[in-house]
Amino acid sequence: MEPTQEKDSDNEPRVSSENATVISVDDRDISGKPGEGAIASQRKRELGIIPIPKWLRYDPERPAHFGLLLNAVFGFASTFVVANLYYCQPLLIQFSLSFDVTYEEVSRIPTLVQAGYASGLLLITPLGDLVRRRPLLLIVTAMAATLSIGLPITRSLHVFEGLSFLVGMSSVAPQILIPLAADLAPPERRASAISIVLAGLLLGVLIARVLAGIIAQYVTWRIVYYMSIGLQYAVLGALYWTLPDYPAKNPGLGYMRILWSMAKLAVTEPKLIQCCLISIASSACFTNFWVTLTFLLGGPPYNYSTLVIGLFGLIGMFGVGMAPIVGRTIDRLVAWYATLVATIFLLAMQAIYTGAAGVNIAAVIIVCLGLDVGRQSQQVSMTTAVFGLVA
Fold this sequence. Notes:
Layout (H helix, E strand, L loop, with lengths): L3 E4 L5 E4 L19 H10 L22 H15 L9 H7 L4 H4 L1 H16 L9 H16 L8 H14 L2 H12 L5 H29 L3 H21 L12 H14 L1 H29 L7 H16 L1 H9 L3 H22 L4 H28 L3
Antiparallel strand pairs: 1-2
Helix pairs in contact: 2-8, 2-9, 2-10, 5-7, 6-7, 6-8, 6-10, 8-9, 9-13, 9-14, 9-16, 11-12, 12-16, 13-16, 14-16, 15-16
């Protein structure tokens, strides 16, 4: 069918056709958000293969309420998706025995998982600004769960490493949920809402080690990954039945434009540059601590079992319990001051670990507590500061 010319209210021609959908400024409401025409267009072209329950469909006149229950679902999802990155850490000794390789070879596994995660942050999470976030979250969660099926099945270290990279790459749902929570929460509750999702993320970091250590002590490490598959599909079901549909933030942008805008912000926004540099350094130290802790506790002078090594994750749950207090405190403070205090505190914990970890177990316990509280405070304050740039 040939396109026809129509006149809008401003006497400007618009193209219409049964086979073409055009979004103009008329498709946006007075608030600048996509109107019904834009939303209809997005449904046609953006991951529209996933049906949406009627009560979760987007209604611009009655947008879904972001309350404590939905915030808790975000935290639950963050817990068991981010856990994919950390199940391997207390299992490294068992991996070396199962695959008949050295400690140096199995130590590549946590690195590859984190490298995959970094790749997902760079290549997948920007889609959160381009497409509707509900189908994006469902797809990446389903990918992570499905790819995890290969981990307990394979008998090859190289296949395990490759799958670990891909699982890490697709385990980015928490980093899509965090900005979604920041967008939906009112400004006076933004830090509190973010802290709940980050608390779930930190809980996943810790509970993964605890569950992996306990299960691997009594049965094979492969059961740990079978459990993770079930938990991830449970997360997928929870998100499907509770996550409302929201329109895309920037449907007119292209993927490459979003990547370019990220690169531009990374070199032109001073506060973002500072947060990136701090996060790179603190994340490296935090990951290094938990990976090397397995070999420290498993060797002399401690010689602890996999069970005991995994239980050290319980100590860090104190930091999760501090999340509501941290969020409310940062809501009342300048975020940058909170970041500075948390960073100094983390430096002190690293100094204690470096000097006394091999001397007395009390030093290790103190550092476990301190690192998790300090890291939680630092992440909440920096995230609040970054989202404040566009608030």
